């Protein structure tokens, strides 16, 4: 800030009465002010995620992302009361039964809640001129990276970024393709551009897909089904392996990941162990978060298809006294192309 002309503040400092938008202090001050207000109204700030608040009885949960929030609960009257309290302190725009949140479309069905990004997918296809392309049954062909130097003016980096946003939110089926394509954003060749366009053609035929979170009130247990796997030296250039895992809650994915490992593994056991270790870290976070939200004990079923890796993890879990059930399953998938 600059001192207005005509004011003599020599050898003095200015005291900031309010954190102005754009200053470094503004986000912290906003978070402190909002959090303190909610705590005065009976909300508890969760330890696992500081942007999620819940009531003592667990009947209402409020999630905040910058200046957007979503309130869920089982008591309509108390929810109305919370919204009225927010109006007294903040300028609030309320949308009951929202259809979108942070670009994610919310659709209530008899089976549960459907999350998708159909509109965003259509915008992506229009942006890159692929709205009238032919559909593809698979998102990418895994194989050689060899190709001619980039000759097309196709915006490869921007397309991968758009697909990355989709794969991180509601489209785990795109995760492997985007992970492989993002490794070549610096110097993409003709093969890379062909792969991205194939992913866009796959998106054209599956833009309506999303994740259905079923409401299962008959099952009193809280269970996380976790699947971990890894290839061995799958990257032809660096010889690094690729980690892959998915975590299911009530049969629907809540967390998934496909990424290249940071080191070169010397055996399949080491590659599987690195993947499982990353998976367990994410699982423990979700387990603690769910227990904090639901006040119920959460069980974990970890599925690994490598005997030596499983035994190593069992020894580590026994030492740390973690509540994890291990399952060894050789997963077989038949894909028709």
Could you list some keywords that capture this structure?
TATA-Binding Protein; Nucleotidyltransferase, domain 5; 5-stranded mixed beta sheet; 4-stranded antiparallel beta sheet; 13 strands
Write structural notes for this entry.
This protein is of the alpha+beta class. It folds into three domains: 89 residues, TATA-Binding Protein (2-Layer Sandwich); 93 residues, no CATH class; 108 residues, Nucleotidyltransferase, domain 5 (2-Layer Sandwich), CATH 3.30.420.10. The chain contains eight helices and 13 strands. The strands form three sheets. It has a five-stranded mixed sheet with strand order 11-10-9-12-13. Strands 1-2-3-4 form a four-stranded antiparallel sheet. The longest helix has 27 residues. It is globular. It starts with 25 loop residues before the first helix and ends in a 9-residue tail after the last strand.
CATH class category of the largest domain: Alpha Beta
Q: How do the SSEs run, as a string of H and E?
A: HEEEEHEEEHHHHEEEEHEHE
Q: Let me know the largest β-sheet.
A: 5 strands, mixed
Count of runs of 4 or more consecutive helical residues: 8
Q: Terminal Cα separation, in Å?
A: 62 Å
The tally of structural domains comes to 3
